[in-house]
Amino acid sequence: MTAFPSRRGRRLRMSSALRRQFAETRLDAAQFVLPVFVVPGTGVSRPISSMPGNNQMSVDIVAEVARRAQDVGVGGIMFFGIPETKDAEGTSGWDPNGPVPRALEAVAAAAPELVRWADVCLCEYTDHGHCGIVVDGIVENDATLGLLSKAAVAYANAGAQVVTPSDMMDGRVTAIRGNLDRADHQNVAICVHAVKYASSYYGPFRDAVDSSLQSGDRRSHQMNPPNRREARVEVLEDVAEGADIVMVKPAGPYQDIIRQTRDIVDVPVAAYQVSGEFAMIKAAAANGWIDGEQVMLESLTGIVRAGADVIATYFAIDAAEALQ
Ligand code: PBG
Ligand code: ZN
Questions:
Q1: Dist. CA 301 → ligand 2 center (Å)
Q2: pTM metric for this prediction
Q3: Spatial distance between the Cα atoms of 176 and 9, rounded to a whole number of angstroms
Q4: Which end of the chain is more exposed for a tag (fewer CB within 10 A), N or C?
């Protein structure tokens, strides 16, 4: 007769070898995608103060960082551009000589093992800072779709393997897929920001891209944080439109949404650990209030445990190094 309790939860936790063997969730650097901010020029590396360790970089420096990322096993890199000029339509967003197309080409040569992701949105390229064309103070959905498609095709032409529309216009997967196919880019995948909340966690990012957003916000197109059922509708619709990957953003505060998404579709689920999530961990670690490396890994583990297959994270290189 065995003494109570016969099952002891602690048995498989007694040594690091046991804990390692019975871990239910594992992080792999191949899951990480490093977002980078590309500016014109050469030799430019300007620190982004609210995102320690991240810089606005010219193409040559991006290529160096990409090689470092590849060397430690990071899976991918995602490009955001800060253009020379902005206008009402975001024309510089599809300039083949713009920062993102040039960075795509440079990284294809310097770090060919990294999967190249290109963010598709107009807000870095419009003088008003909105994610689409603005008419009477409102972001015009349907008129924006053709412009997003132009940007997506420009990035595909430059060697993007995944385009990732972050604008939250309705119908963009259909529009972008059609335009990619007509431009002979059948094999370029779409990772749609299916579920992107109107989040205050994006604050540091707006510094990073020198956002010109002065008036208004993105609440007419990004999702309302209290809504979970609506996320199901968005995800199912985007998959029906042909999305190859669906993204949830932000990640940490929306792990319930990541889990729900994982449970209702079988395409890969990506999650974006956004600038504010990164900045909070960095700030607390800098104050000595938390162990930065451990919290970094724990935050990423939580996102994978929730169901993400891939994570866009500013920790990509540091986390890959920590896993080595
Ligand atoms: C804009 C865009 C944003 C982010 C990625 N693309 C900000 C926003 O919607 O205002 C945020 C990423 C981050 O905070 O790291 N399309
Ligand atoms: Zn945008």
A1: 28
A2: 0.97
A3: 51
A4: N
